[in-house]
Design goal:
By secondary structure, this protein is mainly beta. It has helices at about 380-385, 400-410, and strands at about 15-20, 95, 100-110, 115, 145-150, 155-160, 175, 185-190, 190-195, 205-210, 220, 225, 230-235, 250, 255, 260-265, 280-285, 285-290, 310-315, 320-325, 330, 400, 425-430, 445. The strands form 5 sheets. Strands 1, 2, 3, 5, 8, 11, 14 and 17 form an 8-stranded mixed β-sheet that branches. Strands 4-6-9-12-15-18 form a 6-stranded parallel β-sheet, with no helix packed on it.
């Protein structure tokens, strides 16, 4: 999919940049930790807890310039002295009494590595799959308005939601509560897996969750969601006017989840449906339901929810369409089509059934029968991700780099202990259908999803 550029900031107020390194950073001598030595420059008038002048946004250098980048990295985002602890307690925008400068936005840049609870892998201090040590992250993370997350890449900036009990409790990020309104907030270029908790609470089973306590509208772009019960769960409260209109979900890959996106409401209607009242914006996303045959190569919280899966539930047709000009609309999301023929019948979205712990939902004020549009022909991935005779059975062709590597390994028996990189959800240059004789599985055509998305023009943006 073509990358969607983030809109340029037009506000005259400034942006401050924090950094987090999960393996080599430190929360004890970087952030707002009274009495600890600081590696980052600190306020010239010392640290005053009365006036909260330990914040990096208060730093004025000897030259008089205002520090916009704090180069020494934190270890966690949400630990007791992590990056969020150095956000001014009153939130953003914040005008420093030291510098007189207003900081409207803070971007937290994440270095590559594993963001996970200390006990994510039980008695093992490291991830047995790759030897990486969790950074001791604290979930869920509530990003105040104006605070954003910028990962290095969804391939190597990875959040694991393991809780030491082989069930995995989400979410990694929660909006719709407190000051986490999503206003001026984006999450970009990270991967989240392992939200597998089955305790009857939808929030605990989601990688990112929008709660019904406060209206919110975050922007979520260029992320991987895999091996979760639900990638993004959206719960609104239409009776209280707390919905999540305007939430932008662009350029993400949802793979091997039970639910890609669930959009519903806190209370059911008279027919028992939790209607998806929130008006979301979905552009250039990929929804792949069929788990790969290499599941055993990512054993720790990387197992995939099998059984009845769906790309999206409660999504209104309008939420998938962009205005192309001349009155025409286009759907630039890729997912498997629903089929009535040829046999067998398969529904891949809008199933209107419960996916525990998520109740049944359907789109708001239905148009065209309330059925999500079928994907465009060049964005229908069913032929590459499923065995045409056996559905979501773990038998698949080639869509992602992970598929390409897996089948290469299968066809090279002389290669032992080959790492199939099952989390490599970059698009393969070419695609190919599943074959019963796996030696015949190969790329046959150029991947139609590469540059197949909508190239967003920020100066001509209509939804």
């Amino acid at each position: 999919m073509a990358a969607a550029p983030l809109a340029a900031q037009s506000s005259p107020e400034l942006v401050t940049h924090f950094y987090v390194d999960p393996h080599y950073g430190s929360d004890s001598n970087v952030g707002n930790s009274p009495g600890a030595p600081w590696n980052n420059p600190r306020c010239t008038n010392g640290c005053s807890t009365a006036t909260n002048l330990c914040n990096p946004v208060d730093v004025a250098l000897q030259s008089g310039a205002v520090l916009r980048n704090n180069p020494w990295p934190f270890k966690t985002i949400n630990g007791p002295n992590g990056a969020l602890a150095s956000i001014p307690s009153g939130g953003l925008p914040y005008t420093s009494p030291v510098t007189g400068v207003t900081t409207r936005y803070v971007i937290i840049h994440l270095m590559p590595g594993l963001y996970a609870r200390t006990n994510a892998f039980g008695s093992s201090p490291r991830n047995p799959d790759n030897g990486l040590k969790p950074n001791g992250e604290v979930f869920p993370i509530h990003l105040p308005k104006g605070v954003s997350i910028q990962g290095t890449s969804a391939l190597n900036t990875v959040f694991c939601l393991g809780d030491g009990q082989n069930s995995g409790k989400g979410p990694a990020f929660e909006f719709g509560t407190g000051n986490a309104t999503g206003e001026g907030t984006f999450i970009d270029s990270i991967a989240i897996y392992g939200a597998l908790k089955d305790d009857g609470v939808g929030k605990d089973a989601s990688a990112i969750y929008l709660s019904p306590n406060v209206a919110s509208s975050p922007t979520i772009t260029n992320c991987f969601f895999y091996g979760n019960v639900c990638g993004i769960g959206v719960e609104g409260d239409i009776n209280a006017g707390k919905v999540h209109d305007g939430t932008k979900i662009f350029n993400n890959t949802f793979a091997y989840n039970k639910l890609g996106i669930w959009n519903g409401s806190k209370a059911p209607d008279s027919s028992g449906f939790h209607i998806g009242y929130s008006k979301l914006i979905l552009v250039n996303n990929i929804f792949d339901l069929n788990p790969p045959p290499s599941t055993n190569n990512l054993t720790n919280y990387g197992h995939y929810p099998l059984g009845t899966n769906t790309a999206m539930e409660g999504i209104h047709p309008d939420d998938l369409l962009v205005l192309l000009g001349g009155g025409a609309f286009g759907n630039f999301n890729a997912y498997p089509r629903n089929t009535t023929s040829p046999f067998p019948l398969r529904d891949r979205f809008d199933r209107n059934i419960a996916f525990p712990p998520f109740p049944k939902t359907k789109p708001r004020n239905p148009l065209s029968g309330g059925v999500t549009p079928q994907p465009s022909s060049n964005l229908d991935i069913r032929d590459y991700t499923e065995n045409p005779n056996n559905g979501t059975s773990g038998q698949r062709g080639i869509l992602f780099v992970a598929d390409l590597l897996y089948w290469w390994g299968q066809n090279n028996s002389s290669v032992s202990n080959f790492d199939y990189s099952p989390h490599d959800l970059r698009l393969a240059p070419g695609v190919g259908p599943y074959q019963a004789n796996f030696s015949l599985i190969k790329t046959t055509v150029v991947n139609p999803l590469v540059n197949g998305g909508w190239a967003v023009d920020p100066n001509n943006f209509s939804l």
